């Protein structure tokens, strides 16, 4: 593959295809060859899909030559997390429990992307059934972190992030239930968009907790995230023209922004300083609603996850990594009255959050309070695994509990991100702020 292709954003690749500078078939062949020859190929991709990819590329090339492209990303090759159904191909959600599962149809978001001309390169590794923020999976594979192969990549969309970070896909599509797009994006210096729950279709997406599951892209740029969101929802892209930070009011959320380790803390403060210098007004404060939600409604995740997968897990518990299995089993003790009361409480707390943050354009916090953990130590040290997993997910979970949309941006310090959170369905506002922040932080 030409070196400059691997460094180009999906949007710039699409522009080059439109200008006749890049042929989609040649581009797809180059990605397939680079992926097949990569030393971490089997840790990143569960499988490549060359027959499908090349057929789609040939169709994209014909459209490009005849001036009938479906959009900016027509002919651009991307990867898909292995919980998006692909017709006639295995979709196993990182779990031996689902080995041999072959769906008959594509997931709706994959079908939309295909109709828009995007090329499916293959399926990427992930945490078992998407239930961990670390990205560790000893049952199938643990993808490498782009900054240090001995560290975890973040999860659960671990392979999606690695495919982009290592230049083996122009973008990756993942899912986010408690941080699973934003964490691997931050740990691998990418942009990661968590969409509002319900904005993008979950049809054909293997669930973890369907009440919280969301679909989102992992990309090199905010512009790429904008166009992939538009493709997957069948809408026009958000207009980023004139995006700026001047006069924007941001709330830095305590204690989630200060109770962090030194590396992410320093990177976050540096990012804040640059946003402030660009004209943003930054205030610090806390929102009691999220503190209460963290203490009282986390059982909603485990209760729904175990309700969804309990029978499958207990039929063959030995097929699961024990620490993931025990996370699921925490949901066994959640009663129906507790679950109903928990959702009633969470809906009230979401209203409180909306009221208390209404004066701000966005809420800011470090994407993760820690740096990526050491993979081998996680396997040998139970206490380390539990502590790192909980801390890794703490900040991103704010967005899922409060039902928000959010994006993580690289800070410029390896494996650290700054997270921007906006109200539900406010993706246009979020992405314009993110584009302006990206320009300042680059």
From TrEMBL:
Limits of the Amidase domain: 26-431
Gene Ontology molecular function: any one: catalytic activity
Source organism of this protein record: Rhodophyticola porphyridii
Protein name: Amidase
Domain of life of the organism encoding this protein: Bacteria
SUPFAM superfamilies the UniProt entry points to: Amidase signature (AS) enzymes
Record PANTHER family: AMIDASE AMID-RELATED, TRANSAMIDASE
């Amino acid at each position: 593959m030409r070196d400059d292709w691997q460094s180009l954003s999906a949007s710039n690749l699409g522009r080059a295809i439109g200008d006749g500078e890049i042929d989609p078939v040649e581009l797809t062949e180059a990605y397939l060859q680079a992926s097949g020859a990569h030393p971490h190929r089997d840790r990143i991709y569960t499988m490549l899909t060359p027959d499908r990819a090349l057929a789609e590329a040939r169709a994209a090339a014909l459209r490009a030559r005849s001036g009938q492209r479906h959009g900016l990303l027509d002919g651009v090759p991307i990867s898909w997390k292995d919980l998006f159904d692909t017709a006639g191909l295995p979709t196993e959600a990182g779990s031996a429990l689902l080995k041999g599962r072959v769906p008959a149809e594509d997931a709706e978001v994959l079908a939309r992307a295909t109709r828009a001309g995007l090329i499916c390169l293959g399926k990427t590794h992930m945490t078992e059934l998407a239930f961990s923020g670390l990205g560790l999976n000893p049952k199938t594979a643990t993808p490498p972190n782009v900054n240090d192969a001995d560290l975890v990549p973040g999860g659960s969309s671990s392979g999606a992030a690695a495919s982009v970070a290592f230049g083996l896909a122009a973008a990756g599509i993942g899912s986010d239930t408690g941080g699973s797009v934003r964490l691997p994006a931050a740990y691998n210096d990418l942009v990661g968009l968590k969409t509002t729950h319900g904005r993008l279709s979950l049809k054909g997406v293997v669930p973890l907790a369907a009440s919280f599951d969301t679909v989102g892209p992992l990309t090199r740029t905010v512009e790429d995230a904008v166009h992939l969101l538009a493709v997957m929802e069948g809408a026009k892209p958000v207009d980023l023209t004139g995006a700026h930070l001047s006069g924007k009011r941001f709330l830095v959320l305590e204690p989630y922004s200060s109770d962090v380790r030194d590396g992410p803390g320093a990177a976050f403060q540096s990012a804040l300083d640059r946003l402030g210098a660009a004209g943003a007004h930054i205030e610090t404060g806390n929102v009691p609603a999220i503190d209460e939600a963290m203490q009282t409604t986390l059982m909603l995740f485990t209760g729904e996850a175990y309700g969804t997968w309990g029978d499958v897990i207990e039929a063959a518990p030995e097929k699961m990594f024990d620490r993931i299995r025990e996370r699921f089993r925490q949901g066994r003790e959640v009663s129906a009255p507790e679950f109903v009361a928990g959702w009633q409480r969470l809906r009230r707390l979401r209203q409180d959050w909306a009221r208390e943050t209404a004066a701000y354009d966005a809420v800011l916090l470090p994407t993760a309070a820690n740096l990526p953990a050491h993979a081998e130590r996680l396997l040998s040290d139970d206490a380390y695994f539990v502590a790192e997993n909980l801390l890794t997910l703490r900040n991103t979970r704010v967005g899922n509990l409060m039902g928000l949309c959010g994006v993580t941006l690289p800070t410029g310090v390896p494996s650290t991100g700054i997270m921007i959170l906006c109200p539900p369905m406010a993706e246009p506002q979020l992405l314009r702020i993110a584009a302006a922040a990206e320009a300042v932080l680059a």
